[in-house]
From TrEMBL:
Keyword Zinc-finger found: no
Record's keyword annotation contains Membrane: yes
Protein topology in the membrane: Multi-pass membrane protein
Protein species of origin: Deinococcus taklimakanensis
Region (Disordered): 206-256
Taxon lineage: Bacteria, Thermotogati, Deinococcota, Deinococci, Deinococcales
Keywords: Cell membrane, Membrane, Transmembrane, Transmembrane helix
Name under which the protein is recorded: LptF/LptG family permease
InterPro entries associated with the record: LptG/LptF_permease
Amino acid sequence: MPRLLTRFVLSEVLRWYAAGLALFLSLLMTDALSSTVAQLLTYHPPLWKAAAAFGAILPSILSKALVAAVPFAILLAFSRMQRDNEFKAILAAGIRPLNLVWPLALPFAVVAAFAFWNEGTLVPAGLKNWDKAWYEIYDQPMLPPTQEQYTFAPPGALYYAGRVQTTPDGASANLTGVLVQRGDETLTASQGTWDTRAHTWTLQTPWVTRPGQPPRQSTQPVTVPQADTLRPPLEEARKTSNAELRASLSRPDLQPSQRRDYAFQLARRVADPFTPLVFALAAGALGLLIRNRAAAFAAVVVFIVAFYALWITVPNLAKAGAFEPTLAAWLPNLAFLLLAGVLAWRLR
């Protein structure tokens, strides 16, 4: 294909891409502002605090806009070329339609590289800072890190806590919903504490159950030995950096659902940056079949909604074990890559 034609197609698409990126950034920022305006009016934060909050969420919004702008740019650019009969002139010159699609891979490969860095570095840090910024707006300290459904089962014993809330110094923790079973004795209490230096759990006035005896409530706290290590609670997967995700996957206390969630998030941060490239191929092939701008706008909506519906469904399927985490992360891209292949076959 002539280089002049390649540059023309790229300039047309990139012009629309810049417009689409600005449009989707504006829409997503407006949505974020509309959902938080009540809190801003209630707590009257200084301008710098509000700006810090929205600066923290910006990488996550940018990640979505980078992807959504791809089909918007290509479909509208190609519909304009269809309307002005430029494709007819290109076909009359003996150039195959698909030759117009392959050059689109280059600029959107650059977008994919930026998206990879943004997804793995800026987005997790931004989501973490988003929460911190709102606690500052509320003028409240952040909640201490917690771990749900802690279980430790050494030989002949069982230690369980519904919630482990670590203190700021990390030397102790508050326990909620505590059960300790050692031999024939079972202790249950609503509250307790974990002393990591002394390697003990202290249960506040626990109920004591032994075989052949009615349960009785102790009038004093009961301290029992506990040899496990108090590890830092797991961060929410989407707020965790890639290095932390890999380190967390090796933790022995990771629950199966948590392990699947962490593995999925790690795979998604590789899969999602490829979405602009996949969209470029699929939207490029689809754009060659669309004859007017109204159909192009409709295709943009269907394109994005179909992908997003699949994109928000697969995390729960992966966490539940219905799909292997890596396959679930790549499933939306594979579906649209298949669509690109079918459309390319039709245009061959």
